Amino acid sequence: MPRVCAFNGCNNTVGGGRSFFILPKNERRREEWLRHARIEVLTKTEPERGGYVFCSDHFRPEEIKCKGQRKRLVLNAVPALYEQSTPVLQEKRGEDMPSQCTYECKMPVDFHTLLAQKNKKIKEMKILLKKEKSKLRVFRYRANNKIKDLQLQVSKLQPHQNTETYALTTECLPKEAKEFVDGQIAMAQMRSRGQRYTKKQKDLAIRLYHHSPACYLELKNTFQLPAPVTLIRHLMDSLGSFEPGFLHGVLAKLKAKAETMAKEEKNCAIVIDEMAIKNQLDYNRKLDCIDGLAEGGKMATQATVFVVRAINGKWKQAIGYFLSMSTMAGEEIAGKLRETVAYLESSGLNVKCVVCGQGPTNEEAMRILGASLDINEDGDVSHCIDIDKKIPLIFDVPHLVKSIRNNLKQHPINIQGNEVSWKYLQDFYIKDRKGVIRLAPKLTASHIYLPPSSNIRVNLATQIFSHSVAAGMQTMVLQHQLQKDALHTAKFAEDMDRLFDVLNSRMKDSKWWRRPLGTDSNRLDYLQNCISWIKSWKFGSTRPPPCRTGLVLSIRSILKLYQELMCEGVKYLCTSTLNKDYLENLFSGKGGQQIYPTVRELATALMNGSAAYILGLPESATNYFPADGTQLLQCSHARSTEQSEQEPEPEDVVYNSEQSIPSVDVVIDADDAMDMQKGKQEVLAYVAGWVTSKVAEDPELGQCWECHHALVKLNHMEHGYSTVSREGSLINDPSTLLRNCIVKCESIIEQTPPEIWAAKGLTKRLKEALQCGGAFSELHTQHPTHSKAIEKVALNKFVMCRIGAELRARNQVTAEIKKRKGGPLKDATARKKLACLNSTK
Fold this sequence. Notes:
Layout: E1 20-22, H1 27-36, E2 53-55, E3 64-67, E4 70-73, E5 91-92, E6 95-96, H2 111-157, H3 161-172, H4 175-188, H5 199-211, H6 213-220, H7 228-239, E7 245-246, H8 248-258, E8 267-276, E9 282-284, E10 289-291, E11 302-310, E12 316-324, H9 330-346, E13 350-356, H10 360-368, E14 384-386, E15 390-395, H11 397-410, E16 413-415, E17 418-420, H12 422-432, H13 445-449, H14 458-462, H15 467-478, H16 486-502, H17 521-535, E18 537-539, H18 546-567, H19 581-589, H20 599-615, H21 665-668, H22 680-696, H23 699-702, H24 705-711, E19 712-714, E20 733-734, H25 736-750, H26 754-758, H27 762-772, H28 777-782, H29 787-840
Parallel strand pairs: 8-13, 13-15
Antiparallel strand pairs: 1-2, 3-4, 5-6, 7-12, 8-11, 9-10, 11-12, 14-15, 16-17, 16-18, 19-20
Helix pairs in contact: 3-4, 5-6, 5-7, 9-10, 11-18, 12-15, 15-16, 17-18, 22-25, 22-29, 27-29
């Protein structure tokens, strides 16, 4: 219930436009108020103020003071009954009123006097308001003047802002840190979509990103750094396209860098190596082609990589790679090698030698280029190729050592009547592993029994032919634990250890045999003696293995290369630069645990390796590069041959085969709907319905009733063919017209020659074939208004869908063939070797 005025006989309630006041806290004044209001004194059980309130009608106007919206009473104000008050009622709440009033109240003298007092107070308030208004007007005037003064000061100081910042950063920070801080200050004053980064800023960001992508993303939340997509585009602009073939962008930078090189640094070697790649196809949206196809449209299984590296320097760079269905033919290798030499010579570099493996196709290519590869011939004909000049040929020494180990394991070697046999090495290991203190602690069962895939590891071969193994065997012979004939095998291991150290020298402070070739003639004489020593090897087989010939020719080429360098004033030659370690490290680091990378993964490894050398990343920044490598190129050199003026899309540079074709995802979820071998008609009907839904997304076509009538048979119905219902969208049941168009498209695609799939501009070629074949001619007849727009959308969606289906089908067939051919056989071979290994433990 509403609260009522407590004055005896007054029924004014709270909320009627009057002000109400509660009892005062002072006990004397509270009793006086109660007495004037004719209310008994509060009992002890009632609250302190009794909950009583009194309306403003019982107080004089001068007794009420206004302070803002609140009204307060003067100190001595007491409630009384005045003329303006409500007429007195005859009843009091809960009890009868007395018949006569026994209290004499003071009434105001005159109503006109009270009105005059109110008018006077109103006049005084107007005067006060006028004064306040005048004060506020002065305050606003002063505030505006202060704002103008501050704006003037800012305009005067703004031109000096960059100068003061420049002076501050110059005095306190190094050059690189100053450039970073200045860039952060400049970027902080721009909108996020208006920021533009310089090449130096992008290069610094790429270095940070190579160290740790996660750390880079965390720093990006605090600092103004380029997005990863921007960094990828910068790399693509700097290095060009990494499609199969020669990397023209890298070659252009190589030519620009060669102009600033010293004469000694221009001496380089061409390194050739090939590797097996995974039989998998991926769609490249940037180049509009299929990655993984060799020339002729067949699936590639091998990749041959060409690398150029300094002989008396620390730079190295991949300059091209080529795909083939099998091992590249010798004639093709010879042709690519001629082109490589021509490119490098025109760039100002001096090709001094060629390093490659001793495969049959490589030998064929070298014979085509003029090398006889006959160790019995004297002169340079046996070990030099002729490409406008004599270039020494060096076969990869670590691979030759592995081949010698493999041949020794199969057949003993007779050297000047002394037999070198693998059985002595095996006996030495069996006896040595039983000792508490081992003579050859690094020797393990893998060195002797070679489990699966271990025969390709160089360390297992070089550690067999080591000084510790030779010394241990001699010790066991002296202790009569081994036969005396084992001394010949120990001497062979010692000689092979010295020969490998000489042919793999790295640092001048290393042990004597591993120091670079220099003015000391002892190692040169040792190499000359090794040639006649190797020629005396006689294996158990009737035909000498190629590794013996390759080792002799490599030693001859190294001696010839050393003589040429000495004539040019070079003081020493590190023979470790004359092998394929760089490519081996590149192949092993390109994909983590994957043995066979895809073409995209190989291209990514080459791009990352090139970026690391170009930007000068430290050794710990990536696992792609050997320990002696530094940068070759600088980003300040502009690319002279522009591959493309357009920036690639973010998807163009993400080498992920599962995300190659985003448009195909709709069909992938439909239980492999584009599998052309099963339910072909159902699949095409499904694709037609999907194309219909994409056409309906167009603002103009989606509102056209004629388009809807021509393309859709039923809206969002459960189909009889295979389909997938997604949340929020169901595929329409296509009309017979659209089904016929899609079926005709499929028949045209099936008749396209294989060359179209292997060429660039794949989507453009397929669209032209569909248009020339009249796949949508019936649609043009029935709905000419929007037929062109419908055809454009349908072609885009169907072609991308069809490319994805073709890639999945080919990849699946290849995987099944590979599983049938090599899977069980390899597993059986591995189990057999493991059983042999376990039996010897």
